[in-house]
Each structure stands twice: as structure tokens, then as C-alpha cells.
Write a structure and sequence with these properties.
The protein is mostly beta strands and 235 residues long. The chain has a single domain, classed as Leucine-rich repeat, LRR (right-handed beta-alpha superhelix) (Alpha-Beta Horseshoe), CATH 3.80.10. 0% of the residues lie in helices and 27% in strands. The relative contact order is 0.09.
Length: 235
């Protein structure tokens, strides 16, 4: 049903389709809230509702969908907090919630999603700190948390994410120093930390990121000298 001009709400009765494996209603003009009855679709592998005009909260009942590998609700008008119950979706590969009006903290429970390769929560109104529990996402390739109201330091534990190719935390209110542990992310292609309140020196360990093609640290409060180790990069 995707990529049409469908409007109005998603019917609650779709929650009766217990054998459904894929529900694709993206790129329409659907509005209203996401029915909590979709939490009954326990055979669902993929749920694509992005690029509509959906509003209200993400139902906690979506945490019942243990077979889900892809959840896309981006580019809507969703608000409220990210449900901690999404941490139950341990088969999830991709979680895209960006470009909404979500608020509150990033749940620590998202650190349970050990199969996750892509996590996008950018362009919301999220606040609080970046959970150190994200260090458990060993399969993660891309982590996009930019353009929110996140504060506190960048966790040193993010240096455990050895599969990461893209890390974007720009346009937040992050402070403290840049962790030297980010120098462990040797698969990283892009590192965007600009437009925050980061202070202290640029770690020499960033010179270990031989795959890096994009590094942005402007509009912070960094001091000290530019490490000569950055001359090893292919920027």
C-alpha cells in the first residue's frame, strides 16, 4: 500500500492479521496515531510507516514484535518519548525514528539490540545523555543522533563500536572532551561532532582513523594544538 495518496488513520483492525510478515504503508498521507493493536502482529518482520503525517506516541506495544528486523517510522510528526520496550526487539537490524518530534532521553534499553546495524534518531527533541549501553551494539555501522538537545559527554564506551562507519552527534549540547577511545574506530568514514560545547584538545588518537574521509569538529570550545597525527588521514 506504499507510495500512494492514502489518507486518514491506520485501521486498528490491521492488528487482527496475525500471520502478516510485512506491513508497508510508507510514503502516503496517513495521519492519526499508530494503533497499539499492531503489537499483536507477532509474525511481523518489517514495519514501514515512514514519510506520512502520523502523530502521537510510538506505542509501547511495538515492543512485542520479537520477530521484527526493520522498523521505520521516520519523517512523521510523532511525539512523546522513545519506548524502552523497543529494547525487546533483539532481532532488529534497522531502527529509523528520525525527523519527528520525539522528546525525552534515549532509552538505555536500546543497548540490548545486539543485531542492530543502523540507528537513526536525529532531528528530534531528545535530551539527556548518550547512554553508555550503546557500547553493546557491536554490529552497528551507522549511528545518527545529531540535531537534538543531547547533553553531557560523549561516552568513552563508543570506542567499542569497531564496525562503525558513520558517527554523527553534531548540533547538540554535548560537553566535556573528545574521548581518545574514538581512535579505536578504525572502520570510521565520517565523524561529525561539530556545533556542541566540547572542550579540551583534539585527541592524537584520531590519527588512527585511516579510513576517515570526513571530520567535523567546528563550533565547539576546543583548545590546544592541532595534532600532527591528523596528517595521516585521507580527508
Amino acid at each position: 500500500m506504499h507510495t500512494n495518496q492514502l489518507s486518514g488513520p491506520i485501521p486498528v483492525e490491521l492488528g487482527n492479521l496475525k500471520s502478516l510478515t510485512d506491513l508497508d504503508v510508507f510514503e502516503n498521507q496517513l495521519n492519526g496515531s499508530i494503533p497499539s493493536s499492531l503489537g499483536n502482529l507477532t509474525s511481523l518482520n518489517a514495519l514501514y510507516m515512514h514519510t506520512n503525517q502520523l502523530s502521537g506516541p510510538i506505542p509501547v506495544e511495538l515492543g512485542n514484535l520479537k520477530s521484527l528486523t526493520d522498523l521505520d517510522v521516520f519523517e512523521n510528526q510523532l511525539n512523546g518519548s522513545i519506548p524502552s520496550s523497543l529494547g525487546n526487539l533483539t532481532s532488529l537490524n534497522a531502527l529509523y525514528m528520525h525527523t519527528n518530534q520525539l522528546s525525552g532521553p534515549i532509552p538505555v534499553e536500546l543497548g540490548n539490540l545486539k543485531s542492530l546495524t543502523n540507528l537513526a534518531v536525529f532531528e528530534n527533541q531528545l535530551n539527556g545523555s548518550i547512554p553508555s549501553s550503546l557500547r553493546n551494539l557491536a554490529s552497528l555501522n551507522a549511528l545518527y543522533m545529531h540535531t537534538n538537545q543531547l547533553s553531557g559527554p560523549i561516552p568513552v564506551e563508543l570506542g567499542n563500536l569497531k564496525s562503525l562507519t558513520d558517527l554523527a552527534v553534531f548540533k547538540n549540547q554535548l560537553n566535556g572532551s573528545i574521548p581518545s577511545s574514538l581512535g579505536n574506530l578504525t572502520s570510521l568514514n565520517a565523524l561529525y561532532m561539530h556545533t556542541n560545547q566540547l572542550s579540551g584538545p583534539i585527541p592524537v588518537e584520531l590519527g588512527n582513523l585511516k579510513s576517515l574521509t570526513d571530520l567535523a569538529v567546528f563550533k565547539n570550545q576546543l583548545n590546544g594544538s592541532i595534532p600532527s597525527s591528523l596528517g595521516n588521514l585521507h580527508l
